[in-house]
Design brief:
Length: 129
């Protein structure tokens, strides 16, 4: 029963996280004015906004396919690590905190997914539950 609940919880978490990355990434890909101006404010070129958006969309989709899930997690964690550094450098600590939450969610997806595939209970759940 606990294993089934963990699978359902992981699916819901992946759905929410991937939907967010797909939605936010799509805005960057289409060149939404707010997204582009944010990248320009940080000193990045406008094309970098599109590149990050493509990575977020691809990562959000890739989370759902077994063979690409590891790469998608790695790509999204890399993007979020860059966002974290950028927010800290610009002293935007609220933004940095939000990025930390997404990094934590990606780490949970990575460890829970790996544990479910191996058939064992994720060790980090023993400390939480």
């Amino acid at each position: 029963m606990a294993r089934k609940s963990l699978k359902i919880g992981l699916m819901v978490l992946k759905l929410l996280v991937s939907a967010n990355f797909i939605m936010v990434g799509s805005l960057k890909v289409i060149g939404a004015e707010d997204a582009v101006s944010m990248f320009l404010h940080y000193g990045f070129p406008a094309w970098f906004c599109v590149a990050v958006g493509l990575g977020e969309v691809a990562g959000g989709i890739g989370l759902w396919f077994g063979k690409t899930a590891k790469f998608a997690l790695g790509a999204l964690m890399t993007i979020m690590s860059g966002a974290l550094v950028t927010h800290i450098l610009f002293k935007e600590y609220t933004g940095a905190l939000i990025v930390c939450v997404y990094l934590l969610l990606l780490i949970i997806i990575a460890f829970a997914g790996r544990s479910l595939q191996s058939g064992e209970r994720p060790a980090f759940l023993d400390r939480i539950i």
